[in-house]
Amino acid sequence: MSLETLNERLKKFVINGQEDAAQKTASEILNAGVDPLEVIEMSLSSAMITVGEKFEKGEYFLPDLMSAAAAMQAATHVLTAEMKEESKEKLKAKKIGRVVVGTVSGDIHDIGKNILALLLEANRFDTYDLGKDVDSMKFIEKAAEVQADIIALSALMTTTKPAQKEVIEFLNEMRLGDRYIVMVGGAPTSKEWAEEIGADGWAETAEQGVKLAQTLIRDR
Amino acid sequence: MVPPWRINEVLDRAETGPICLEKDFELKVLLPKLQDVIKEYEIKFDPESIVPSDDSIADDVWKAALELYLEVGTYCTSTHRRILFDESEIREAMKNFPGKFVLGYGKDSRELFHRKIEDERRPFCLFSPDITCDEELFVPMSMAYLQEPLADGVCAPILEEIEGRSIKAGAPSEIKGSVAHAMMFREAARRVGRPGVFLQSVGTAQTDAAQIAASNPIWGERLTDGRFVASISELKVDFSLLNKMVHFHQYGCFVGALTGPILGGYCGGAEGTAIVGTAYHIQGLMVNQAHYQNYFPFHIKQMHNTTRELLWGISMTYQALARNTPLISLSNGFAAAGPCTPMVLYEAAAHGLVSVVSGANLWEIAVARNKYKNRATPMEAKMACEVGCGVAESGIKRPEANELAKRIVSKYEREIAEAPLGKTFPECYDTRKIAPTDDYTNLYKKVKEGLRGLGVPFIY
Lengths: 220, 460
Description:
Chain A is an alpha/beta fold. Chain A has helices spanning 3-15, 19-31, 36-57, 62-81, 85-93, 111-122, 136-146, 162-173, 191-197, 206-218, and strands at 97-103, 125-129, 150-154, 181-185, 201-203. Chain A folds into two domains: 3-92, Methionine synthase domain (Methyltransferase, Methionine Synthase (B12-binding Domains), Chain A, domain 1, Orthogonal Bundle); 96-218, Cobalamin-binding domain (Rossmann fold), CATH 3.40.50.
């Protein structure tokens, strides 16, 4: 089988969320002596962009997104296992930025946040998902620990969105307001709310969240 | 026997059921089984059949939901265990479910009951703005909803601030806000002359502590009122939710299960949403031991449920429940457009029509994607409920309802993504006299006449 065919197959398996097949094909490509960095950049990134587009168009739902992400992770694991340090550094350098993401304190809803985390990861962000009902100070501690560029705060309830404001207040009072970009989102939030609390950006959907993160990093 | 029957069974199973990581519950337990039952029962959304007339499809949705729930159960995120029931327990609970309750008290009390497909009895109509409001608008907005003649019960708007201070979940401000919510809502009910009307509260209270704080038979939530126990998407609960369940039952008020499966989320498409939605009703009965359910499936991005695929799902869930259970459920509309627009009134009409002919009671209606403060009025709920009552009393059947639904949906479905935000409550109502503006009254009449022209039946 030609290398081109193998790459196409890998891409297809990731788009279709076929984890085992993606893993096996990644091994075959490695055995053929191809530079794994090239495969990650050409096949996997391109596959996940297609997956993101399908989600945006409504052709894919969350389960499809999760399967594709799992297939991509399985293939990446194989491809990076024996990667040279130099290539690993190159791969790291290709990342757009680091994002600490979570649902704010008091809020137990996480589907929107989960989608955002998956799409960010698929779009070459290093993503640190703190989960749901996250204490405001935890966002700041984690951002400092991983030297994050962005803190992304999700809230699904009107009574939990004040916690988004609290994180920004903490950052400002700790004189860290300029160090991190803060993005907010979630059902009860709006552009006006983001402006009111001093967030750097607001996104209505996870896909818009990725585009916003890309723009905010670029314009930083 | 009236719920609850076995609170300790639920609590014990939350502590002793099979251990499972939350991620595994979603990916390895729920998703594969859901995909299996969709295939096994060949459930398929048809955009031309918003209100299917084939009973066997409804029965298949029920069988799929029962099979799903029996295997998957409910995940408790506090204990990382699954709460499971066997079929005989579910059958026992259903067999002993009364199928009707009297809500509220005195002259203002109303019967809430299980409805059948094409049932000619008027649905129970609960009017609710489902949105936050400014503190100073809470009483006038509540009164506007409470004074509506078709409102058998009312739910108040939600406070974001109390005494000028932001309400934050878990903070003392939430308890203050929730108590104020309960007190002001009761005052509003007395002011419109309906002191005994069924009140569903307290939307301002997110946490268990704030809900418990508002239980008081004199100034707060009474035994004749209703309270909600929500769920976590999908088919999950936690101790905070179970705390509410225990408290509400021990306090003695009515308990509703609040569930909104997400189209585009773990449910996948319309088929999965209809099945999970039906399974949620079993969860509501078994875990929350609820007297009734509020059901609001919605689209993950657009936050509405008035498209063909979601209306189809609503119809399927209600037909499945109507034919196979004695359960009581209120169908909660979510419109994309905002107040004082023709679109929101068409969306409300479609939701009321499809829900009622399929066997639901009504909970109407969240508008403007359920997102913008002060952006809801009773006019949207009135349209949904006038249509719902008209559909019931006229005795129209599913095939005719399907044709009507398609005609109404075609009036707005292309505009969903760019739906107009409309106006706020103070822009639509004289907030001192608590009356709609002439603009909105005239628009309402015009749209109503248009719907009548399409063949939609009204009671007056």
